[in-house]
Design brief:
Blueprint lengths: L2 E7 L6 H13 L6 E6 L10 E4 L7 H5 L19 E5 L3 E3 L4 H5 L5 E4 L15 E9 L4 H9 L1 H8 L2 H8 L4 E2 L5 E3 H5 L20 E3 L6 H6 L2 E4 L2 E4 L3 H9 L6
Parallel strand pairs: 1-2, 1-4, 2-3, 6-8, 9-10
Antiparallel strand pairs: 4-7, 5-10, 6-7, 11-12
Helix pairs in contact: 4-5
Length: about 250
């Protein structure tokens, strides 16, 4: 089965370096051939190896483009630019630090992150809470997610607020990555409040495949150095493992 790594980029929050670094990191951590696809509104600065396509039109309002991650559900279209096979979707604010081969081969149709209230700790009802920063699925398998949305976008947005809750409600039999595979920078790597000003964040371990950044800080802030984060969870200075990852895959400090 063909393997596809997919990301999305719209607006100006992330520059082309994020896409290029992600491509190079994926290439360094996948055995054998794969396609790297970016759905985007701007291809300026992309490496030629990156296949770029427009983000499909779902009838979103300007507000819904910015809040809730709703453009992401377009990846579930019945026919997405003729792409086929097993697709690993990865958010741009992600650090790939281990082999992705097992993520493609994980024995379930759909696999995502159990974010819980704080990434893996139990929710009040004891059930997983899907995070869609990184997930794998079979292209074309869940077209009803898009069909239902485009039939009445505002009804779906009003009911679910963010796309990952909608996806979890619509896909049955979701599996979740082993806890060590995908780690949250906020909850697993960052130091406790105020400690981060003098102690650098924890580096990935050999068990980790991906470090996910969600909200502040962004990976580039750790690369650039200075004061980063949001009080009281502040850090200071250039983080060596983040800098080595970024520059080692062709990115430049900004």
């Amino acid at each position: 089965m063909e393997r596809v790594v997919m990301c999305m980029k719209w607006g100006t929050l992330y520059g082309p370096d994020y896409v290029n670094v992600l491509y190079r990191a994926a290439k360094a951590n996948i055995t054998g051939p794969f396609r790297f696809v970016c759905l985007t509104d701007n291809t300026d600065g992309f490496l030629p190896e990156i296949e770029a396509f427009p983000i499909p039109d779902l009838g979103l309002t300007d507000f819904d483009w910015k809040k809730g991650g709703w453009p992401k559900i377009s990846v579930f279209q019945r026919d997405l630019y003729g792409l086929t096979g097993r697709c690993l979707f990865v958010d741009l604010d992600t650090v790939i630090c281990g082999s992705l081969d097992e993520m493609f081969d994980y024995p379930a149709d759909f696999v995502g992150i159990d974010t819980g209230p704080t990434w893996g700790k139990p929710t009040s009802d004891g059930k997983p809470l899907l995070g869609t920063g990184i997930f794998v699925f079979n292209l074309g398998q869940y077209p009803e997610i898009v069909d239902e949305f485009v039939a009445d976008p505002q009804a779906v947005v009003s009911k679910y607020r963010i796309e990952q809750i909608y996806v979890q409600d619509r896909i049955k039999g979701i599996a979740y990555w082993p806890a060590d595979w995908v780690r949250s920078f906020k909850y697993h790597q960052r130091q406790p409040a105020l400690v981060g000003l003098v102690v650098p964040p924890k580096a990935p371990t050999p068990k980790n495949k991906i470090i996910a950044f969600h909200g502040d800080p962004r990976p580039i802030e750790l690369v650039n150095g200075g004061l980063w984060g949001i009080a009281p969870h502040l850090g200071y200075g250039r983080v060596k493992w983040a800098y080595d990852y970024w520059t080692g895959h062709g990115g430049k400090p900004q």
